[in-house]
Each structure stands twice: as structure tokens, then as C-alpha cells.
Amino acid sequence: MMTAVVLGGTSGIGEALARELAAQGLNVVLAGRDLAELDARARDLEIRYGVRAWSRPFDALDFESHHDWLESCEREIGEEIGGVALCYGVMPSEDEAAVDGSLTRHMIEINYSSAVSILDRVAERLRDRGKGFICAITSVAGDRGRASNFHYGSSKAALSTYLSGLRVQMARDGVSVVDIRPGMIDTKLTYGLPGLMMLAKPRRVARDIVRGIRGNRAVVYTPKIWWLVMFVIRMLPDFIFRRIAL
Predict the structure, then answer these.
(1) Could you give the domains of the chain?
(2) What angle (nearest 5°) sits at the alpha carbon of residue 180, between those of residues 21 and 109?
(3) Helices (H) and strands (E) in the chain, counts
(4) Do residues 230 and 143 make contact, with C-beta atoms less than 8 angstroms apart?
(5) How far apart, in Å, are the Cα atoms of 204 and each of 21, 91, 208, 245?
(6) In what order do the strands lie in the sheet with 133-137?
(7) Above pLDDT 70, what percent of the chain?
(8) 17-21: long-range contacts at Cβ-Cβ below 8 A with a sequence spacing of 24 or more?
(9) CA quadruple 71, 76, 77, 79: dihedral positive or negative?
(10) Helices 150-171 & 114-129 angle (0-180, nearest 10)
(11) Threshold 0.85, pTM exceeds
């Protein structure tokens, strides 16, 4: 039975994905900073789905700990990790990001730099085995810069570019790399934001993620309608795009 790690196990998508993976029969490691909450969720997975589940501390900004984090995790749980899903991130308001450089830097470190740091180490481990999967949550916001969230979107665009290159590199080693691009999801990250449309539940997104992993998809838009929405947005000529309030 495969064991998968969910980095950001207390996030809305992370929790839903852990449940979906467990429902599919996978053992799950929930990783994050709130160990008490992770412990409770791990026990719930074991009771509900009859799988094994663990909680492990993970600090995205403790870059030094990333080097041997996966190896240490495997040693402590006594299982080989077959896949890693990165589900954490932050999204400050555009107005705050534009005037607070420290806030923007923190966002970039969380959304991009830390992701590259840990996924590079994961890739090394899975490459040696010639199997497994890596998936990460990016965003439709990274497809084209929009006035309403281009600071956040640029951090996700950078992560998508990284995943694209990693996918090519890992393909010859038998490891799949999946870029998950959700639209608006009903989580703490989006709570209270104005102008939300087509808000999807995390459970639906989690199902799309698992299908994408099983199908070895390169990019998964979720819900699917966002593929069409973003195709139209990407194709708009710049002189038209600049006049649209997005």
C-alpha cells in the first residue's frame, strides 16, 4: 500500500486531499506546524478509512530542515514514501502586498522558495527509486497577471514554471509531476474576499487532484470549467485585457 505525504495537512485543500487519498486506500502522512490538529486528523483518517496515518512537523521556512526531511519521515514511520502533495500557501491582499515589501517577500518565500526547497529534496529521493508522484497546488492566478492579484499570481506562476521543468526532468525517471491549478475554492484562504465567483468545495478539488495523479496529468484545472475560462483570458489581446477589471 502506497504512503503519501500531504504538506500543509491543516489547509482546506490539504485536509480534503488527505481524506480522498485515504478513501482510495493510501496511507497518509499529514505534515505541518499544528501537531495537535494534525494528530487529531490522522486519527480520524485511521478510524474512517482503515488506513495508517501519521502526523509530522514541517516548517516551510526552515530551509535547513528540508534537506533530510523525507528521509527522516520515512525512518520514523517505518514506511517508504511514494508521493508528496504540496498544499500550503498564503495570499495577502493585493493592496497590502503592493505597499508592504516584507509581506510580499514572506509570500514569495512560502509560495515559491520553500516549495522549490522541499520538492527538490523529494525529487532526489523519488528519482533514486524510479517511481512515485509529486503534485503541488499553484493557481489559475498564475496563468496571466491580473490587476487584482498579480503579486500572488506571480508567485504561483513561478511555481508552475518550476514544476514544468521538473516534470520534464523526472519523466525519464518514472516520477510524475502534476501542477494543480484551482480556481476559487471555499477555504480560509478565500474567506471574506469580495467578488468571488464559481466557488468550489475542497472535496471536489481533492477528487480532481487524485484523478490527475492517477492519470499522470501534467496540469489539472479544477473545477474543469477553469480550463476554458483561463484559455479565454490568455487569448485576449493585451489592449482588450487592460480594459477588463479582473
Answers:
(1) 3-241 (3.40.50.720)
(2) 105
(3) 11, 7
(4) yes
(5) 13, 21, 6, 28
(6) 53-57, 27-32, 3-7, 81-86, 133-137, 176-182, 219-222
(7) 95
(8) 17/85, 17/87, 17/202, 17/205, 17/206, 17/209, 17/210, 18/45, 18/53, 19/45, 19/48, 19/49, 19/203, 19/206, 20/203, 20/206, 20/207, 20/209, 20/210, 21/85, 21/210
(9) positive
(10) 10
(11) yes
Residues in the chain: 246
Would you tell me the crossing angle of helices 69-77 and 114-129 to the nearest 10 degrees? 60
- In the structure grid, which three cell numbers stand for residue 155, read together? 508567485
**What's residue 195's pLDDT?**
57
pLDDT at 188: 61
Block residue for cell numbers 498564503: 90
Helix (H, G, I), strand (E, B) or coil at 165: helix
Burial environment of residue 143 by CB neighbours within 10 A (0 to 12, 13 to 18, 19 or more): buried
CB 198 within 8 A of CB 155: no
The pLDDT of residue 136 is: 99
Pull the grid cell for residue 7. 504538506
Ranges of the chain with pLDDT below 50: none
Catalytic residue at 112?
no
Contact predicate 42/97, CB 8 Å: no
pLDDT at 196: 57
Catalytic residue among 49, 112, 152, 162: 152
